[in-house]
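Table 4 source record.
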Amino acid sequence: MIVTGGYYREICVSPKHDELFGSGGRAAFAIASAGTDVDWHYYCPEPQQQIAPVALSNPHLRHYPHTSDEIVSFAYFHPLSEPEYRPSDPPRYDDIVVDGANILRFGFMEGDAIVHGDKVVFDPQSPRKPVSFKANGSTAKSLAIVLNAQEVRVLGKDQDEAQAVRNVQQSEGASVILVKSGPQGCRVYVDGALRGTVPPYRTDRVYKIGSGDIFSAAFAYHWAEQGTAPDQAADAASRCVARYCNSRVPNVLLDNETKTLEPIAVKDEKARVYVAGPFFTMAELWLVEQACRALDSLGVSFFSPYHEAGLLHDYTDDQAHQKEIERVVAADLKGLSECKAVFAILDGCDPGTVFEIGWAVRHDIPVVALSQNPKPADQTMIHGSKNCSISDDFASAIYRVAWAAWST
């Protein structure tokens, strides 16, 4: 198999992570780890061209670097945050041209790949402005395109997903289109018609950086190399992604771990999440904002007391002040009662947050608490309560609460 895709530096503040991988490197290494011979084409500065084959070494992986000036870095604060690119606008280099039987093509930051193959999987990885597969002259006898829900609407020029898929199928000549939708799983379209939906699979931890690379790599391996049907290949890819998110191990083979994974059954996509946490300092409010943005990016509706009920207004009149308290409390409790799960920021044991957790437990509403500076004595009641869980990882907690809301 041929893989064309980036060799990039990936930096994450929390959880701490700094390594050279990139979409192409991770996918090529994962497929080669399955025992399949892989030719990987990528851009790389000359000084790194001797290092990359050692850092990403596998007897089935052959490196074909194309000279560039520097390695592009992706810097994340957490795995669900928007990355900062360094340099933000890297120079463009000559196109990489390859010809082969089975090809996995990713979008590049530094250039483009023109591919000609029998079975080709294309993952543009550009949600704001996904590029056309055919625009640069690439061809495929059988083409599968991997897009997320935003990309397919942009590329298909229609807000209705089904119509957007049909538009992409006609304009690109793609026999298979996969539409990834985060915690909702992946929808598989064949010849413009919905073949089925592949669920996501539950894991304790969710490390998202590189998960899309593994999905495309696993799908390409099972669909192009193994000849598996598109829906079955997509399910295999979803299972491999779950294993990767939990362990960060890039691999495309199914094993005992992937076979026993529990699918997420989405009962109510409109279910809301209550965001409980203090918002009285800049740091506290920043974390609340990040939680709201992360939920929104996953398509999860939420109620945030800060945004929807607001802060207490100061009144010198005691009666007016009491009415203001009652207004805020009533709004927050109404929001709680209308939500199917609670995301609670537990560090500091803010009294209001602890009260909201207790109220939710009393009304059988699942609670996922984020605690990165735990004091065991402060967590006894939560650990011992039904439908409560605690995570020390932001992204994992966000995904858990999304699954809890949709599954309740």
